[in-house]
Amino acid sequence: MNNRLARYVGEGRVEIVEEPLPSLPSGGLIVRTEACGLCSGELMSWYMDRKLPHVLGHEVAGIVEQSEDARFPVGSRVFPHHHAPCGQCERCESGRGVHCPTWRSTKLLPGGMADRFAVAKENLSDTHVVDDLRAVDAALIEPLACVCKSVRGGGRGKAAVIGLGVMGLMHMLLLEGATGLDLSPGRRDWASELGLDARSPEEAEDSAYDAIFVCPGSQVAFETGLRLAAPGATITMFAPLGPGEDLRVPQAAYFNDLTIRNAYSAAPHDTLEAIEALRAGKVRAEQVCSEFISLGELPEAYGRMKRGEILKPMVVW
After folding, report:
1. Could you give the maximum distance between any two Cα atoms of the chain, in Å?
2. Element housing 301 (H / E)
């Protein structure tokens, strides 16, 4: 039996290929994939091209088929984070686990967008049994953990979310009473159907917000956040600008006492918060995934998501 997987081959293209099945790592797991989402970060060619060759998939959940750790018995549904910190270094102990050298060196093999993948023992510090969650919801743990981190440090008061793609929607679902802004009528309609307050940026120009979450990685989106910021507001940049682009901050940000922060990835405590949010029913896969597809359909769906034609596909086995 071979292992089907989705490989990014460069220039915005994905191919489904077959390779030998992964071997059980010492102290680790072999997982049969049940569901895996396509991350919006996997659409950024400048980011993906430097990773070649690369197997997609880190928003993943599946069933343990082989285990060398009693905490994760065969047959249990698990979510494994593709990165896990050591938990012992100075960065981990100071709450900066995403900058731990171990965190950066760990990964799933060959990747989550495959029939089966291996989880090394180093990743098990941020791997969780989630038998009580549907596989399609458990596959949202990693992106939702990133949003939990963003929201927790993003300030209090009247909140606005700029960009109503998948990550913006997740922010909105966690931020009760927030206003969501997007240029796309289709995205605003999707959010409105979820009962969320979705507007065009022009409709919010006369408002001022205390906590602003900028989901697109662009100067234009940041400047929208600046225009909406009340004195003393916090602006969270959730995504990076492209290579060679520097965020331009005007002098007015100083005199308005604005806090500008970044929210990069997620650590184990963020993962736990995301799991609890899913268990509480705050986010469901159908709210943020527009299509549930087979692995063979992914290359075509990848192109459509990259072009902005669909919100988010999730591959289901």
Report:
1. 64
2. helix 298-306
- Fold agreement between 2-144+266-316 and 154-262: no
- SS3 (DSSP) at 293: strand
- Dump pLDDT digits (tens) for 23-71: 999 999 999 999 999 999 999 988 999 888 899 999 999 999 999 999 9
Nearest-Å Rg of the Cα atoms of the chain is 20
Fold of the CATH domain 2-144+266-316: Quinone Oxidoreductase; Chain A, domain 1 (3.90.180)
Amino acid identity for residue 7 in this structure: R
Q: What is the 3 state secondary structure string of 136-159? A: HHHCCHHHHHHHHHHHHCCCCCCE
Q: Report angle CA 46, 50, 261 to the nearest 5 degrees.
A: 55
Strands 77-80 and 313-316: unpaired
DSSP state of 57: -
187: part of which helix (H) or strand (E)? helix 185-193
Hey, how many other C-beta atoms are within 10 angstroms of the C-beta on 243?
A: 9
Reading phi first (left if > 0) and then psi (alpha if -120 to 50, else beta), residue 299 is in: alpha
Quote the distance between the C-alpha of residue 84 and its chain's center: 15
pLDDT digit string (tens) for 102-158?
Answer: 999 999 999 999 999 999 999 999 999 999 999 999 999 999 999 999 999 999 999
Peptide bond into 268 cis (omega under 30): no
**Residue 63: C-alpha distances to residues 57, 134, 269 (Å):** 16, 12, 23
CATH fold for the domain made of 154-262: Rossmann fold (3.40.50)
